[in-house]
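Posting this for the archive.
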Amino acid sequence: MSPRKPTTNEFCPVFRCVDLIGDRWSLLIVRDAFDGMRRFGDFQRSLGVARNILSDRLKKLVDAGILAMQCASDGTAYQEYVLTSKGESLFPIVVALRQWGEQHLFEPGERHSLLVDNRTGKPVPFMALTAQDGQVLTAVSTRVKKVE
């Protein structure tokens, strides 16, 4: 396979993020890592993904510095995948996707998982982007500025 041809989109941070973690399996691996999953077999059972695809996505996430491999915490010969600080900084993205899904992809009263605050046991409040003065930002109240 020949290398991908560069495009003008490569100057866009959204393009670069989607290129790295935008496929279904990579995002679901990150989601499972946030839920405490660490081992290859656990990821495979959770996702039902083919071994070769899982192996490829895990390698890509390790190479990107999102996951790191370490010796198993239980002292066995296994390796574990753990989120790095770069990986942990993806948490707001996973939460935003979860909250959008809760709002738009479930019928009223339909069962689904819910993210709760460990301290209070209450649902995590809906995320909103705010300006420095606290005003909620929307798409029409922002613009993209090219940085050179």
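The chain is about 40% helix and 5% strand. The mean pLDDT is 92.
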